[in-house]
C-alpha cells in the first residue's frame, strides 16, 4: 500500500529525514518510535503533504501513485489521513459544516454520490459512538475551546467519517489521560480492517498496549535504525532510547 | 500643485445649488471654503488621497440628473426575501413616486421641511465633504418615526447610481427616530454601469430617548465610483445605534461614521467588513464621542484584501472628563491575501476620564497556513479551504446583522466573492 524509499526531507535547509525506507501493507499496524527530534512528526507531515518540508531525495508511492506529487487534499481523497498532534482550532467554522464539506469532497473524488443532510447526519451519529463524542461538541466551531482529549477524539472521529486506507496518528496519545487514551484507541481499533493500515507515531510505549502494532520501528537522526515486533517497544520502554543511540553513534564513529 | 486643493473646485456646484435652506447652505459654503479640499499631508486624509483622485477623475462638476427608473427595475434590485418598505433614490435624489408608503412613518422630500436644522448633527466644520454636501445638495429624504413606534420590517434605502462620466451625486438624508421607537435601515447602492462618478453622501440621524436604531449599509458601487459618506448621529439616554457597514467594491471609498453618545446608558455599535480586490481603496474613519458617564461603545471592523487593494481604518474614541464608567471596545483585524495589498490601521483613543474600561487592538496578517493545511488534509480543496476560513473570519461581523433576509443576502455576496475571486 505504502512504499517509502530513501526519503530525505529538510526544512529551511536542515535535513531532518535522511533516508527512510518503509513498506506498509494493508491490514498492518506500524509503530514509529524514537527520541525527541528524531524526525517522527516530520515523517508524518511529509506524508500528509505539509508544504514547509522539502523532499530532497527518495520516493513515496501510495497504492501505486506517486504520493509526493499530490496536493494534501488529493492525498486525503486517495485515502491518507493524518491525525494531528496539535489539532488546529478554527473559530467560525462549524464542525458539522466542515465535515460535510470534507466528506462530500472526498466522496466525489472517489466517485461516490454526495450525502444529503439526512444521510450525513445518520453517518455522523453512527461514527460518533465509536469515539464517544458528544453532539454538542460538533455544533461548536471546529476544535475551538475543546480540551486536549476532546480534540484528539475529534481527530479519530474525523478519521472514522473519512474512512481512510492509511491512517497516520501523530502522537495521538500526547496529553491524554488514561480514559481518553482508552476511548481513542478503541476507536482506532474498531476502524482497523484487512483493507486499511495504520501508522502510529508515538514517543511512549503506553499507546501500544491499546493499539497493538505488527511492527515497531525506531527512528533516530532521520533514519529507521531498528525494526522489530511489539517486543521492541517493550524493550524501549524498559531501557529507554540511550542504548540505541549509543549503538548507532558508536557504529558511526568506527 | 493640484488645482483641486483650491477652494473653488466645486464652486460651480455650489453656485448651482437650490435657494432653500439659505442659512445652512451659507454655513456649508463657508466651512467648505475655510477647509478646502484635503491637502496631500492632511492628517485626516493621510492614506486616502481623495483630492488627487477627484482631480484625475472628475470631469464635470455638475449634479447628475435622476435616471428614468421603472417599478420593474426597482423590484428586480430588491434582494430576495426582503419584506420591508423600499425608498428609492436615483443619482442621490429621493423618488417618492417609486417608493413605498410606510405605516406610521412620515416620509417626504427634505425640501418640504423648510425648518429642518440641516447640519446640526453632521457638523460641516468637521469635514469638508460634509460642508460641500450641505452647501450644494439638491434635495433629499426626510424620514420620521414617531415615538413608541416599532417599525417591524426594515426600511430599504435603495440608491441607483449611474452618472455621466465624472459627475457628482449628493444624497442627503435626515432621519428622526422618536423616544422608545425602533427601526432598521438598510442603505444599499445599485450601480448601473461602470462610469466614473463622485458620490458625496450625508446622513444625519436624530435618535430619541431609548430609541433603537439599526443602520446597515452595503457598498457595492461600480468599480470606478469614488465616494465619501458621512453618517452622524446623536444618541440620547438609553438609546442604541448599531451600524454594520459592508464594503465590497468602489474605486476609492471614504466612510466617516460619527457617533455622539449624549445620554447615560446609551450604546453605540460600529461593525464593518471590507472585502476588496482589484485596486479598490476603502477607508473607514469612525469617531465615537463619549461625553457622559455610563455609556458603551463597541467596534469591530474586519478587512480581507486581495490584489492591489487598500484598506484604511481609523477609529477614534474620545472619552471626555465627565464620561466616567465608560466602556469602549475597539478591534480591527485584517487579512492580506496578496503582497501588493495594503492596510493602514490606526486606533486612536483619547481618554480624559479616570474610571473607564477601554480596549483597542488591531492585527494585520495572512491566512493561517496551519488551519489551511488542516482543512486540506481532510480532503477540502485549497481554494475552498481558503474561502471557508475567510468566510469564518467575516462571519463574526455578518452575524451582527439582525435582519435575516439582508444577512443572508450579504452572506451570499460574500460567499460568492470568496469562492470565485479568492
From TrEMBL, chain A:
Residues 2-246 form the ABC transporter domain. It comes from the Bacteria. SUPFAM superfamilies: P-loop containing nucleoside triphosphate hydrolases. CDD domains: ABC_FeS_Assembly. Pfam families: ABC_tran (PF00005). Keywords: ATP-binding, Nucleotide-binding. Belongs to the ABC transporter superfamily. Ycf16 family. This is Fe-S cluster assembly ATPase SufC. The gene is sufC.
Automatic annotation (TrEMBL), chain B:
InterPro entries: Fe-S_cluster_assembly_SufBD, SUF_FeS_clus_asmbl_SufBD_core, SUF_FeS_clus_asmbl_SufBD_sf, SUF_FeS_clus_asmbl_SufD, SufBD_N. Residues 15-155 form the SUF system FeS cluster assembly SufBD N-terminal domain. Residues 164-393 form the SUF system FeS cluster assembly SufBD core domain. NCBIfam families: sufD. Belongs to the iron-sulfur cluster assembly SufBD family. This is Fe-S cluster assembly protein SufD. It comes from Algoriphagus aestuariicola. The gene is sufD.
Amino acid at each position: 500500500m505504502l512504499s517509502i524509499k530513501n526519503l530525505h526531507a529538510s526544512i529551511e535547509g536542515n535535513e531532518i529525514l535522511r533516508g527512510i525506507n518503509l513498506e506498509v501493507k494493508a491490514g498492518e499496524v506500524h509503530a514509529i518510535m524514537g527520541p525527541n527530534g528524531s524526525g517522527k512528526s516530520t515523517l508524518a507531515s511529509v506524508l500528509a503533504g505539509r508544504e514547509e518540508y522539502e523532499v530532497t531525495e527518495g520516493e513515496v508511492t501510495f497504492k501505486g501513485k506517486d504520493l509526493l506529487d499530490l496536493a494534501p487534499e488529493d492525498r486525503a481523497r486517495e485515502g491518507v489521513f493524518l491525525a494531528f498532534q496539535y489539532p488546529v482550532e478554527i473559530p467560525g467554522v462549524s464542525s458539522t459544516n466542515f465535515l460535510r464539506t470534507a466528506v462530500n469532497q472526498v466522496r466525489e473524488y472517489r466517485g461516490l454520490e454526495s450525502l444529503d443532510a439526512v444521510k450525513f447526519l445518520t453517518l455522523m451519529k453512527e461514527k460518533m459512538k465509536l469515539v464517544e463524542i458528544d453532539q454538542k461538541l460538533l455544533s461548536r466551531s471546529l476544535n475551538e475551546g475543546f480540551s486536549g482529549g476532546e480534540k484528539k477524539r475529534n481527530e479519530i472521529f474525523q478519521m472514522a467519517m473519512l474512512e481512510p486506507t492509511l491512517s497516520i496518528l501523530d502522537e495521538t496519545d500526547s496529553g491524554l489521560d488514561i480514559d481518553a487514551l482508552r476511548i481513542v484507541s478503541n476507536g482506532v481499533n474498531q476502524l482497523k480492517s484487512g483493507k486499511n493500515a495504520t501508522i502510529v507515531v508515538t514517543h511512549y510505549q503506553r499507546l501500544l498496549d491499546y493499539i497493538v502494532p505488527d511492527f515497531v520501528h525506531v527512528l533516530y537522526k532521520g533514519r529507521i535504525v531498528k525494526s522489530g515486533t511489539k517486543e521492541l517497544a517493550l524493550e524501549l520502554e524498559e531501557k529507554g532510547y540511550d542504548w540505541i543511540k549509543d549503538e548507532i553513534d558508536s557504529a558511526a564513529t568506527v | 500643485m493640484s488645482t483641486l486643493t483650491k477652494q473653488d473646485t466645486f464652486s460651480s456646484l455650489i453656485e448651482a445649488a437650490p435657494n432653500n435652506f439659505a442659512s445652512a447652505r451659507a454655513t456649508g459654503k463657508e466651512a467648505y471654503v475655510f477647509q478646502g479640499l484635503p491637502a496631500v499631508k492632511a492628517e485626516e486624509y493621510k492614506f486616502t488621497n481623495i483630492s488627487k483622485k477627484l482631480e484625475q477623475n472628475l470631469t464635470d462638476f455638475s449634479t447628475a440628473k435622476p435616471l428614468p427608473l421603472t417599478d420593474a427595475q426597482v423590484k428586480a434590485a430588491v434582494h430576495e426575501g426582503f419584506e420591508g418598505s423600499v425608498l428609492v433614490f436615483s443619482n442621490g435624489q429621493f423618488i417618492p413616486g417609486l417608493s413605498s408608503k410606510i405605516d406610521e412613518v412620515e416620509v417626504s422630500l427634505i425640501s418640504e421641511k423648510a425648518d429642518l436644522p440641516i447640519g446640526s448633527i453632521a457638523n460641516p466644520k468637521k469635514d469638508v465633504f460634509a460642508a460641500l454636501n450641505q452647501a450644494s445638495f439638491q434635495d433629499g429624504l426626510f424620514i420620521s418615526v414617531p415615538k413608541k413606534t416599532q417599525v417591524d420590517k426594515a426600511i430599504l434605502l435603495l440608491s441607483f447610481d449611474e452618472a455621466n462620466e465624472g459627475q457628482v451625486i449628493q444624497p442627503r438624508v435626515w432621519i428622526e427616530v422618536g423616544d422608545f421607537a425602533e427601526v432598521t435601515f438598510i442603505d444599499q447602492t445599485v450601480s448601473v454601469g461602470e462610469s466614473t462618478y463622485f458620490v458625496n453622501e450625508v446622513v444625519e440621524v436624530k435618535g430619541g430617548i431609548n430609541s433603537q436604531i439599526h443602520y446597515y449599509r452595503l457598498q457595492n458601487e461600480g468599480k470606478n465610483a469614488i465616494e465619501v459618506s458621512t453618517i452622524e448621529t446623536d444618541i440620547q439616554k438609553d438609546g442604541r445605534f448599531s451600524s454594520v457597514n459592508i464594503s465590497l467594491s468602489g474605486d476609492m471609498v471614504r466612510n466617516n461614521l460619527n457617533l455622539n453618545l449624549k445620554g447615560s446608558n446609551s450604546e453605540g455599535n460600529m461593525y464593518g467588513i471590507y472585502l476588496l480586490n482589484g485596486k479598490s481603496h476603502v477607508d473607514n474613519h469612525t469617531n465615537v464621542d463619549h461625553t457622559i458617564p455610563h455609556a458603551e461603545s463597541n467596534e469591530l471592523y474586519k478587512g480581507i484584501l486581495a490584489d492591489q487593494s487598500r484598506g484604511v481604518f481609523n477609529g477614534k474614541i474620545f472619552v471626555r472628563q465627565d464620561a466616567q464608567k465608560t466602556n469602549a471596545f475597539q478591534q480591527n483585524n485584517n487579512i492580506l491575501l496578496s503582497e501588493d495589498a495594503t492596510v493602514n490601521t490606526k486606533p486612536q483613543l483619547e481618554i480624559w476620564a479616570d474610571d473607564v474600561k477601554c480596549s483597542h487592538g488591531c492585527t494585520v496578517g495572512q491566512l493561517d497556513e496551519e488551519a489551511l493545511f488542516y482543512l486540506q488534509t481532510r480532503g477540502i480543496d485549497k481554494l475552498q479551504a481558503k474561502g471557508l476560513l475567510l468566510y469564518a473570519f467575516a462571519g463574526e461581523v455578518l452575524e451582527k446583522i439582525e435582519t435575516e433576509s439582508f444577512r443572508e443576502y450579504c452572506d451570499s455576496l460574500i460567499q460568492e466573492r470568496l469562492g470565485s475571486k479568492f
